[in-house]
Fold this sequence. Notes:
Layout: E1 2-11, E2 14-24, E3 29-33, H1 40-48, E4 55-60, E5 63-64, E6 75-79, H2 90-100, H3 105-118, H4 134-147, E7 152-156, H5 164-181, E8 185-189, H6 192-198, E9 201-206, E10 209-214, H7 216-221, H8 226-232, E11 236-244, E12 247-250, E13 253-256, E14 268-277, E15 284-294, E16 299-303, E17 308-311, E18 320-329
Parallel strand pairs: 3-8, 3-9, 6-7, 7-8
Antiparallel strand pairs: 1-2, 1-4, 4-5, 9-10, 11-12, 11-14, 12-13, 14-18, 15-16, 15-18, 16-17
Helix pairs in contact: 2-3, 2-4, 3-4
Amino acid sequence: MLEVREIFKTYAGNPLLNNITFTIGEGETICLLGASGSGKSTLLRIIAGLESPDSGFISFNGIDLQQTPPHLRDFGLVFQDYALFPHLNVNDNVAFGLKMRRFEKSEINERVVTALNLVSLSKFGNRKITDLSGGEQQRVALARALAIRPRLLMFDEPLGALDRSLREGLLSELRSILHETRIPAIYVTHDQEEAFTIADRILILNAGNIVREGTPAEVWANPESAFVAGFLGLGNVIDGEVLAENKFQTGHGIFTLRCSHKHAKGDKVKLLMRPQPADTEMNTFSGVVADVIFQQERFKVTLEDGLYVYLQEAPKIGQMISVKVKVECLA
């Protein structure tokens, strides 16, 4: 098990990571999700031993890694730019880490074959790297990381250079490989779709802080803050004021909803208005249609006041519509 405790890191006098603490269990894949500059790649480099924190510690199976150099941590790394050697063929690229560790030739050959089978490249061993597509090169990079049989796999935006169709296919394969091998993994990305597809648990970073942690279903159902709801694009985040228990005044009307937070009359709050229509809900908002965009078997309908909702049928621009929606109190 990997344990990360109270990691602090500053850069040029500014905080980069602030009291980062989490664990990873056997066979678990966690995703560090955040925008550029949130600190996720720096955190990954610290775990890999490529950078040092200002304070805090990292351990694996109870052993402190502070004095353990990167090459002795037995962690596999996969980067966005593949980091392959163009002058070596596929077999030699996959074998590189094993040769550096001075494995016997027979063991190297067996591990290379096994790793290439895992990534569906069993017939590519003698190919030149320059003859491969981007998706195939990323599979080689993954095979190289798997060949050393790492205690932990780490991915830093591994699919960022691939087009959408390749990314979706490789992401599905990677998820299957991680489940099959049971190797714990840290997956760094800014792409929410990747994060929710591959992660057992998601850690959302903002300005060096973990602002939400949970399973994909938990995070989606309960973002807990206006920042997380906005970052994930869960719906319309609007300002509200407490009128009475479970009743809120907004610029779009008065909404009634069950709220687990403790509020006093007059408190300012943030509300999340989910964009999916919900016929069983009591809250309705109305407005004039300003724009309609077709998106994957539904229409994103934006109103003149900036609110949006997804509908199965497209209204006309300029039409007045009313929609029942679910409204939640974020804080």
